[in-house]
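Risk mitigation, structural track. In case the binding assays with pyridoxal-5'-phosphate fail to produce interpretable data, a predicted complex structure has been prepared as a fallback.
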Amino acid sequence: MKKETICVQGGYTPKNGEPRMIPIIQSTTFKYDTSEDMGKLFDLEASGYFYTRLQNPTNDMVAAKIAELEGGTAAMLTSSGQAASFFSVFNLAGAGDHVIASSSIYGGTFNLFNVTMRRMGIEFTFVDPNCSEEELEAAFQENTKCVFGETIANPALIVLDIERFANAAHAHGVPLIIDNTFATPINCRPFEWGADIVIHSTTKYMDGHDAAVGGCIVDSGKFDWMAHADKFPGLTTPDESYHGITYAEKFGQGGAYITKATAQLMRDFGAIQAPMNAFYLNLGLESLHLRIQRHCENAQRVAEFLEQHEQVAWVTYPGLPSDKGYELAQKYLPNGTCGVIAFGLKGGRAAAEAFMKELKVAMIATHVADAHTCILHPANATHRQLSDEELIACGVGPDLMRLSVGIENADDIIEDLAQALDAI
Ligand SMILES: *Cc1c(COP(=O)(O)O)cnc(C)c1O
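Fallback model:
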């Protein structure tokens, strides 16, 4: 089926007389006739549900839809995008291991890797997504377990050369994990370019209505764990906490990674998405293809308006031919990039503050990628503790505004920006 049909119908096919809509299984636990039946579930000898901290049928239906959209073999929902990022890496790397990540990633992910996961004994090397071949090659170590990047980085809006990073990872026998939150599978399917695992903050476009925080991990099923068995003992040797099961043998290349993440990480950390939130997420997914198209059309018009305005100093939007990422966007995102634009005014930080006060349609919010147009001045919000020098060093200058263009009428958004520019 094509993406549009999967958005509406994927993941769940009701049988005769069953509900048309994905049912919300609002139950922590599940009943069995014998304790022998239950025992088989605990041994992973039979598939089924026993406790919603690990798995829930509503979640699995929605995860199956996202797996279909990405072209993967298995998927799981998590309580947030942060949980998805953490699980995706921690499922492969532990204390003493090393991970390579693009330096242009979401701030929350950077902090998770650079501070919290370092405390767990995992080392990280951050590489510029546009670094030279030598620099990328030099980042790999004996104990490197995976490479991590974002299709379109939030908020820097840098497009990753996915194929190049996939080739480098595979040459060293490790998988490439891609955060595909901003592009969504409507605009880019990283598996088609060599990525092995995809993660999402479903809080953004997938939900799309500011309703539910959530995340998702999808496995392409393409990475051959057994061919690199020494690097990934967690997948290729017996798990003593599951009666000696070897995930890659028992669940094969297509199922091992997600089964291990469910059986070990979800069991122990419990970062499961609430079934009610999975239901909201599914409502968002049903119109994802329509909304993404409108987000991109609107953002393109807004970016073009800003670029030609005399008070605007600079605009970053990979849909603009003048943008550094335009060529990569043409390759990986030919039908549109995303709805998020970064820009600055000639008056710098002070002008940004004055400008944002005047906006009426664009709301000030710490959010991106949903139906409502919203704007954030990171220097005054998420990056408030940094000095101007530190802001420039991390690529989020003091004048940078992140504008997330919604699905309202583009004329109204442009008119709002124009009146605020006039007012200052
Ligand atoms: C928001 C975001 C995250 C974190 O997701 P939460 O759902 O907020 O935990 C991760 N990656 C990207 C690209 C994001 O925009």
